[in-house]
Structures are given as structure tokens and as C-alpha cells.
Amino acid sequence: MNAPITGSAEQAFARFLDLERQTRAARTPAQLTYSLVNDGQSLFNFRHAALLIAGRVQAVTGVSAVDPHAPFVAFVEQAAAQLFKQGLLNQARVIAIDGLSESIQADWRSLSAGQVFWLPLIDHQGQMFGGLWLARDLPWSPPEQVLLAQLGDTYSHAWLALQPRKPWRLRWTRKRQLALLASLLLVLLVPVRQSVLAPAEVIPLGGQVVAAPLDGVISEFLVRPNQAVESGDLLLRFESTSLKAQADVAERALGVAEAELKANSQRSFSDAESSSKLDLLAARVEQKRAERDYAAELLKRSEVRAERDGIAVFADAERWLGKPVQTGERLMEIADPDQAELRIELAVGDAIALEPGAEVALFLDSDPLQRHLAWLERSAYEAQPTAAGQLAYRLDARFDAEAPRIGLRGTAKIFGERAPLALYLLRRPLAALRQSVGL
Predict the structure, then answer these.
(1) Is it the case that residue 50 has pLDDT exceeding 50?
(2) Which of 4, 102, 395, 410 could pair with 364 as two cysteines, CB 3.0-4.6 Å apart?
(3) How distant, in Å, are the alpha carbons of 198, 345, 395 from that of 351?
(4) What integer pLDDT is reported at residue 412 of this predicted model?
């Protein structure tokens, strides 16, 4: 059985001063926590002590690591919460069991000693941020209560010296909780502008697409990316060896057909058989002439020239050299450098309701601090796979002022209509929940 303080007042006071010294000698929060629940046991003979900070048990006498799910820990936290609501923890006092609920009283009798003294920890503003639950079997005498109250000031000063940040309060009252909940609900109802982010690229406006005029292999690129060109300038050449041979063969075949037609025309006056072949030979001459013209046209197409003034817009010439291409395959684009628009790839999962004329803000990767304003002109109704393999809607926007250089990439922020903040924050989670649940 525990016993109260014994011995002379001088000895008790000396032990009290030594306890204060040990408290102030702590250099870390862990050392101070251990000292608060263990060092005073020799002076006050308590069975156990529990340190609570912000309503949670941080340390228990004789325990190295506190289990937050332990029965004693749960009991102390629940008892402190009830006493805090009753306003009984603001000053040092002996705790009466009668003021607690029946379930907590039962836990008290089975888990703690009969006499409990509450020692609050007070900050510089006079607000409680924690306390000590001291339990023993014998009643607490008035001198002991005076010493504990004095010791509480020392504990508070030492704790605030090592933990200067203001801790959370034990518990918020129900009134404050309801007020906070109401404030959050009102904030969630505040209308805000919806917006989404999507990758974007500056592309030519009304540019002329240069496509492959024939099936073949590109042998030479005569322009560089973003090079200025004029109408009639040579852009690239296709491998023409086979085309030249084909044109030469077609020319010779036409000469043979014409010579045969001429010979049969001369013999037709005396030879009825030659006269009957004239129509067939004339048709063959026309066929060979068409083949020659077609071969000459293909040979002419092997050199691709610009049909308008502008700049050559393409990525890299090296990726085309030596590569077989098909007729109609896009090679480059001739565009006016002063005429550009914005192409945006909006992922399906980020799509929101957008109307023509919606505001678009472009932030280029090369200059992320500058904002380029644009206005939405068109949006696709059908999503298409992008180069990254995801489905996205194509959006086209017209710049409000001078357009950036063609080919630059960045991130576009598209603004939609106003909606409650709750919808803005929970739109994606609600969409995922609906897809998974099927409602």
C-alpha cells in the first residue's frame, strides 16, 4: 500500500527541489516525458501517472512505449475528455469519481487507484494544453496538493521550453464543432470557376499541308525547321533513279509505237492487212503517250516546291531521309509565322462543360511565368487517342494578342462555368465512384 510523504518538512522540501532540478535538466522531449511520469513517484508515492498532451496519453509510469489501444490508456483519455467538458481540468484538483459516467467509473475501479489528482499544464496565455493523471490509494493531503500545484508550473515551463509550438486543445466543444461544420458547409457552397489543365501546342492557323505526291523514298531535304520559304522554292527531293528510268523507257516505247504506226500507214495503200491495223496501232500510240506523260509527271513530282510564302513547320528532317513514304502522307506545313492558334488535348477524365468563347490561359514550358490569353473556338465531340495513348478531346483556341512562336508547347488552363466549391473539389472522386458503383 502506498504511503504519504514521511519525514521532516526539510527533507520533503529538499526532495521537491531535487525533482524540479531533474525536470529542468531534461534536454529532449523524450527525457522530459520520462521524468514527468516517473521521477515524482518517490516523493508523492503515486501508483501510476499518465501524461496527456492535447487529450492523448503520451507516457505512463513504468512503460517504455505507450499502446494507444491499451485499456488504461483509453480509460484515461475518455475520463479526461468528460472532465474537460465539465470544466474541471483548468486547475489542479482532486478528481471525484462521482462526476463521471457509469462505464468510466467501472473502468476507474478496475484500472486505476482510488485517489486521483489532476495536475494541469498551462501555457503562457493561461490555456491548458495537457496535464498529469496521478493516482494512488491514499488521499492527497493539503501540503501535497500545494507542492503539486507548484510543481505543475515547473512542468509547464520545462515542456514549453522544449516544445515552443502551441499544441492543440484537448477537445473542442460540441458548439465549436457544429460551428466549424457549418462554416465548412458554407464554404463548400461558395461558387467558384471550374478549370482544368491540359497539354497544349501552338500550331499554324490556316497553314498549307505539304503531303507526299507519290510513293517513294525521300533523298534530300533542302529546308530546315522554321526556315522562311517563298512560293516556288524547292523543299525536298525524292529518289528519282527509277522514275527517270521509267520515263526514259516510256519515251522509247512511244517512239517505237509511233514508228510502227507510220510504217503501217505507208503500207496501207497497197496492203489491206496493214490498213486494218491502223486503228489498233493509233490506240497503242495514245496509250504509250499517256504512259510517257504519267512517267514525266511522276518525275516532276519528285521535286516538291512551296506553293506559298511562309515558314516550313516540321520536327526533324533526319526522321524522313531514307524512309519510304506513301502518297498523301504529311511531310510538313507551310504557315504564316504571324498566324497561329492553340491546340489543346483535354483528357476524357478531366472534361468539363465548355462553351465557345471560354477563357484559356497558356503557360509555356519555356516561359512558365508569362500568361498568354486565348479564347476557345472549337471543341471536338468525339475523343481521339493521342500520341501518349490516352483518349482526349481536341480543343482549338484563338489568341487574344500576339501569338507565341509556332511549335512551342505548354500547359493550358481552361476556365468553365461557375459551380459550388464542393463540386469543384469532389468532381473526380464522384465520377470514379459513379463508374465503380454504376449509379
Answers:
(1) yes
(2) 410
(3) 10, 10, 11
(4) 92
pLDDT of residue 169: 47
Cβ count within 10 A of residue 32: 22
Element (H, E) at 187: helix 174-188
Say what angle helices 102-111 and 71-85 make with each other, to 10 degrees: 140
Comparing CA positions, the residue from 230, 197, 207 lying closest to residue 403 is 207
Q: What is the pLDDT of residues 265-294, one digit of tens each?
A: 766 656 656 566 677 777 887 887 888 878
**Cell of residue 392, nine digits:** 482526349
Measured on CA atoms in the order 106, 108, 110, 111, is the torsion positive or negative?
positive
Residue 119: φ, ψ to 5°: -115, 100
Domains of the chain by residue range: 8-162, 195-205+336-437, 208-329
Is the torsion defined by CA of 357, 359, 364, 370 positive or negative?
positive
Q: Is 90 exceeded by the pLDDT of residue 363?
A: yes
130, 52 contact by CB (below 8 A): yes
Report the C-alpha dihedral over residues 82, 103, 59, 81, rounded to 10 degrees: -10
**H/E stretch holding 324:** strand 324-325
Look at residue 355 and tell me whether its pLDDT is greater than 60: yes
Specify the CATH architecture of the domain 8-162: 2-Layer Sandwich (3.30)
3-class DSSP state of 107: helix
What is the dihedral sign for C-alpha 238, 242, 245, 247?
Answer: negative
**396-413 pLDDT, tens per residue?**
999 988 888 888 899 999
Please check whether residue 58 is in contact with residue 52, taking contact to mean a CB–CB distance below 8 angstroms: yes
Provide the Cα torsion 86, 102, 115, 99; round to 10°: 30
- Residues 3-13, buried b or exposed e (16+ Cβ, 10 A)? eebeeeeeebe
Assigned architecture for domain 195-205+336-437: Beta Barrel (2.40)
Whole-prediction pTM value?
0.50
pLDDT for res 200: 92
